[in-house]
Amino acid sequence: MNDNKYKIEKTEGGVTAAKGFMAAGVAAGIKYTDRKDVAMIFSESPATVAGMFTSNVVKAAPVLYDMDIVSSSPFVQAVVANSGIANAATGKDGMDICRKTAEAAAAALDIPENAVLIGSTGVIGELIDVKKLETAVKELSQSLSDTRQAAADAEAAIMTTDTVPKEVAVRVSIGGRTVTVAGMSKGSGMIHPNMCTMLAYICSDCNISKEMLEKCVHTDIPDTFNMITVDGDTSTNDTYLLMCNGRADNPLIDGPGDDYDAFFAAVHYVNTHLARAMAKDGEGANRLFEVTVKNADTKENARKLARSVAGSSLCKAALFGCDSNFGRVLCALGYSGADFDPEKVSIDYKSSAGAINVFCAGHKTGYSEEEATAILSKDEVTYIIDMNEGEETATAWGCDLSYDYVKINADYRS
Amino acid sequence: MNDNKYKIEKTEGGVTAAKGFMAAGVAAGIKYTDRKDVAMIFSESPATVAGMFTSNVVKAAPVLYDMDIVSSSPFVQAVVANSGIANAATGKDGMDICRKTAEAAAAALDIPENAVLIGSTGVIGELIDVKKLETAVKELSQSLSDTRQAAADAEAAIMTTDTVPKEVAVRVSIGGRTVTVAGMSKGSGMIHPNMCTMLAYICSDCNISKEMLEKCVHTDIPDTFNMITVDGDTSTNDTYLLMCNGRADNPLIDGPGDDYDAFFAAVHYVNTHLARAMAKDGEGANRLFEVTVKNADTKENARKLARSVAGSSLCKAALFGCDSNFGRVLCALGYSGADFDPEKVSIDYKSSAGAINVFCAGHKTGYSEEEATAILSKDEVTYIIDMNEGEETATAWGCDLSYDYVKINADYRS
Question: Is ipTM strictly over 0.85?
Answer without folding.
Answer: no
